[in-house]
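Here is one chain, start to finish.
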Amino acid sequence: MDDDTYQKVRDYALKLLSLRPRGTLEMSQKVSFYCRKRKIPPEAVTRLLQDFTNSGFLNDEEFVRWWILQRRGQSKPKGTKFILRELLGKGISRDILEKVFYEEDHGIDTDFDRARALAAKRKNVMGKMPVQEMRMKLGNYLGRRGFDWEIVDKVLDEVVAKGR
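Its structure:
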């Protein structure tokens, strides 16, 4: 493989990274597809991943930290279970996830605080519906967002009981 071919692959990978950070597996899949489409030998992918890992462009731990901040900082934040499921789907190892999730402090509110804020906001939109229906709808909403059912139950006790 010549340097011009590798440079094309490298440029494509840098373009992907300019859009947002990527995990190693995700980058490997995207660059592999690019290479197959253009009949570039697979050695280019291996070389690129080694170069990018050595230079710090690909770092799964940093990617996980970035992903967590994005998912928790949205107007409709996600719970820890949801984020973990997404990252496992992106090929991040459980060891990295445990290290980042459980050993490091992100300086972000707990799942309970995020769930409570989401439920309070959503409750205002629901208006004056019966308590049981509101509990069911808010519970399902928070569950779909990846919050643990124990947290959802505590939040519902607090938010739905208020003002009733």
